[in-house]
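Moderator note: this is an archived Q&A kept for reference. The question asked for a predicted structure of one protein chain; the sequence and the answer are reproduced below.
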Amino acid sequence: MSRCPPPRKKKARKYIQLATVRRPTAAAVAEAYYANNPAKAGYLRADALALLLSLANVGAHARVLVVESCGGLVTAAALERLGGGRAGAVVSAWLGGEAAKRPPLDLWRLLNFTAAQRGALRFAPLRDLLGQQRAAAAAAGEQAAAGEQQQAVGEQAAAAAQQAPPGGQQGQGQGQQGHSSTVGPPFNCCILAAATASPLALVRHVLPLLAPSASLAVYSQYAHPLAEALDALRGQGQLAGLALHECWWRQMQVRGGGGRCGVEGAGVG
């Protein structure tokens, strides 16, 4: 004959709340916010976040541009996907310039990144990035013009040396000029998840910042803006491999509808 447990222990088993300490990851944070406060994370589900990272080709040594209104969740996931590599970087940008109001992007702090990982993260307004890209393009044009001029001078010197008598001075060869790459535009990966902006307008806004064949993924809670952007971009010839994807996570689908992300594939140089 078994003895009944004391009433105090029975009440404890019935009403006590157990907590499990988990390592913070982007997937765990996405699940927690979607279950408790989905508006703060832009109604972004964990499966939609994973699909965005995969289709944007975010990985080690990637230079990622993120424009979001999901509280910093997409930025944190992209930084986590880099794996702490020194060659990669994540730039989280927002619409406007320095005077524009910066959206709240503090969810990335929940993942307890190391100092090396935090060093690969940068915040900047889109207007500054576009100005940086225009300055780099102007500098590249000046270097190309200077190189052509130097080449023309070298050809003239070589022609004069050939016409000179033997024993004359020979033309000097031109040196090779290298270039150094810096973190910033052009980016080879891009994720757009800003609910406050039109997907089509946002894609057109960031295209000058992307490298040729860069992977681009766009997230929206609704399918209609993505379908409109897809039809408009197909006729421009600036992007290739355009497709519209929809996530189907049945448990979450019954509770709150499916998250959707449209993917604009490789950019045509």
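Archived answer notes: The two ends are 81 Å apart (CA to CA).
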